[in-house]
Amino acid sequence: MRIGAHLPLADFGGGCPTALELSRYVSAARDLGYATIAANDHLFWQRPWLDGPTALASVAAAAGDMRLATSVTLPVLRHPVVVAKSLTTLAALSTGPVIGGLGPGSSRADYEAVGVPFEERWARFDSAIRLVKTLVGGASVEEMPFYPGASALAPIPAHSPQIWFGSWGSDRRFASLAAVADGWFASAYNATSNQYAASRARLNDHLRTAARDPDSFPGSVATMWLHITEDRAEANALLNDVLAPALNRDPALLAHLPIGGAGHCSEVLAAYAAAGAREVLLWPVLGGLDQLERCAAAAAAA
User: Fold this and answer.
1) Please, which residues have CB within 8 angstroms of residue 40's CB and are 6 or more apart in sequence?
2) Phi and psi, residue 163, nearest 5°
3) Is 80 exceeded by the pLDDT of residue 153?
4) Given this model, what pLDDT does residue 229 score?
5) Burial (CB count <10 Å: 0-12, 13-18, 19+), residue 191
């Protein structure tokens, strides 16, 4: 199982990072052997939040040959042509591969801000992911529901971005996207290791129905919030008073995340590996550089 890291885009009490701090974070992750650097996408959130695609582009040089991933970005809100252009540019600027993880987003406030009906998000997304996938491959697009046609983009990098989808695992989404996407981003804070294994098994069934080989269909477990500390009171305070309110979750439903001692973190990583996860993307809530180092040691133990 590979280990990647999210950019620490949200302010959980230490402020939002500067460009220099993000570069140092990514350089440290690269040197520690992390495989992927990922950035999520919100316009509005419960905490101050840097723009994900912009932040990801800012660390392309520091990442070296690491994978860069949007996990996920929102083509319905940003417009699929704009997202396709952003992804092809990122791939042209990067040494390593680029994964364009796409999703519809779940924030009604984001949709209201850009004047797109929230109730249309999935219908629009079904067209948007196909449009983005076609454009990053260098082809033009005919008119489709909600979107006019678009000419081929240029330049197209030698290695086009893969287009993955982000989903919590409904059969309806798996069925509609199994034939289209190149991979799947699951959500760690929405799925225990056992729930992930069950969802992956259902996805595999849909892939077989679409005449695709599940063994060659990649996936990653994203948004695995992380904080390693041997101080139980510190861990409980971060989980109960910081993370759970930001995610609007009962803290008891987040107990499976690697928040706590190094031994607990190792057990969490081992459980997801045993469940078949091929990669997890860790997100330090606070103390990013220190947490990357602590987690690298815990991952080795796992």
Assistant:
1) 6, 9, 52, 70, 71, 72, 222, 223
2) -115, 110
3) yes
4) 96
5) buried
**Token couple for 219:** 């996936």
Percent of the chain with pLDDT over 90: 90
CA distances from 61 to 68, 93, 127, 203, 295 (A): 11, 8, 32, 35, 23
Please choose, from the candidates 217, 294, 230, the residue with its C-alpha nearest in 3D space to the C-alpha of residue 260.
230
Alpha carbons 219 and 200: distance in angstroms, whole number: 9
What is the DSSP secondary-structure string of 5-58? EE---B-SSS-PPPHHHHHHHHHHHHHHT--EEEE---SS-SS-B--HHHHHHH
Angle (CA) 235 188 246, round 5°: 55
CA 82 to chain centre: 19
Q: Which of 69-73, 166-170, 289-293 bottoms out in mean pLDDT, i.e. has the lowest?
A: 166-170
pLDDT value, residue 177: 87
Quote the mean pLDDT of the chain: 94
Delineate the domains of the chain, giving CATH numbers in brackets: 2-301 (3.20.20.30)
Helix ranges (H only) for the chain are: 19-32, 52-58, 60-63, 75-78, 80-93, 108-114, 121-136, 171-177, 193-209, 232-237, 244-247, 262-274, 288-301
Closest C-alpha among 229, 4, 25, 178 to residue 99: 4
Q: Which two tokens stand for residue 261?
A: 């001692």
Q: In whole angstroms, how far apart are CA 72 and each of 55, 164, 183, 271?
A: 13, 9, 12, 24
Can you tell me the distance from the alpha carbon of 280 to that of 187, in angstroms, rounded to the nearest whole number? Answer: 9
Residue 246 and residue 10 in contact, taking contact as beta carbons nearer than 8 Å: yes
Q: What span, in angstroms and rounded, lies between the C-alpha atoms of 53 and 72?
A: 10
